[in-house]
Amino acid sequence: MLHAPSRFGRHRTLQAGAVLAVVLGLLAWWLLPLGERAPSGSLTFSTGVPSGVYQRYGERLEGALAKDMPEVSIKLLTSEGSQQNLARVATGEADFTIATTDAVATYVRDGRPGAHLLRGCVRLYDDYVQLVVPRDSDIGSVADLRGKRVGVGQEGSGVRLVADRLLNAAGVHPTQDVTAVPAGIDTMPDRLVSGHLDAFFWSGGLPTGAVQELSQRFAIKLVPLDEDLIKELQSNGGSARYYRSATIPADAYRFAQRGTSVPTVAVANLLITTDRTDPAMTEAFTRTVINSRDRIGREVHAAQLVDLRTAIYTDPLAVHEGAKRYYRSVKP
Known about the structure:
This protein is of the alpha/beta class. Helix content is 38%, strand content 20%.
């Protein structure tokens, strides 16, 4: 025979339910500062060329974002690179993107559409300029590219921006003195192998998968960018101040470098949005980027270099309010 619950039992059940509701409410308040709702809706993330680091990083970040923001629908858009990415975000075609600081500074300096809306979220990893030639090539410097067929990156890429500047710094006109081929990292390696290119520029995190794969099937070398060239590059001021001397470690491309480090130029990447993006969305996005660093870094090495201590330094852009909230929440 079944007995109806006693008044005491019902009271205990109601008490337990009330306690659980309070606990869940406190947990929600802790996870969402100031009682904000969880991010929902949709976002578009503009990445880069297929097989480039931006795209590979974006694909893995998409999975982390989907787990952390289950109410948000995420769409990835491939792109030509930094310059196109900035235009997309600034004009509302995308919500978040990655771009190099020199490209950002140039976009802002030129007063391009929506430039005043751009905001930084995270300083990510550095891109390293890689000038790739066949191992038996007589090209030993940027100046030696005169008269050659050179892959310079697509028109909307950050590669194109730095390639043109390096050529000018070496006294080589980027359109008159070379045959400039506007191709991306998805096609330049095969063009080099087939003999349709004598050299190509690439700017990306280390190692870039497409360059690493090329080095394993075709004998290549990396051309050094010496200190004098970099000083000439930096002497132009303006957005060129974001370039710095760097070294490609000897083990970045084992088959290409054969135990030798290569001097080059590096430039930082930023995660970017606009001041119109919801602060809760931006805070959650920023948190995921930082928290997923090690997991993504096991597949995309450059992601390991994201550092919480320097992430907030998004010069030349102001930090988005949502990203500021995240940095305040993790401040010791």
